[in-house]
User: Fold this.
Amino acid sequence: MSPLTITSRDAATGPVLEITGDLDYATAPDLRTAVDGLTLDAGQLLLLDLAGLEFCDSSGITTLLAARNLATRHSAAIALAAVPANTARILRIVGLDRVFTVYPDAAAATGSTGPAGPGSGSGSAGQGVSLSQRNGPPGSVAEGL
Assistant:
């Protein structure tokens, strides 16, 4: 088990949370607290950088959705960056690949490099890559979310 570490920083596009370690039943409340403590303005992008994520269970997925709900309430966008393959697979299976915009890394999401390609979900201006585009056909469970 790896401890969860959440590092917050600001980018030109909005807040970035770098999430490392295990995001599970025991640690998901920590991410929820970090997300709830953010100042998020309309039009900003909340980026969750998952490059260091080692494990994510259903509690972690629920917390990612809670972050999306917060962004929506503030008329902001949300995107995920550097989603590990095992987590991308889970998101695809439950249909959340149609909800989140995904970037290959945080730099691409924050404009340090160009966008990765056409996107889907609730990301900024349709940029980024959907999980289904990167890893096969989309799931249908979450249609209508």
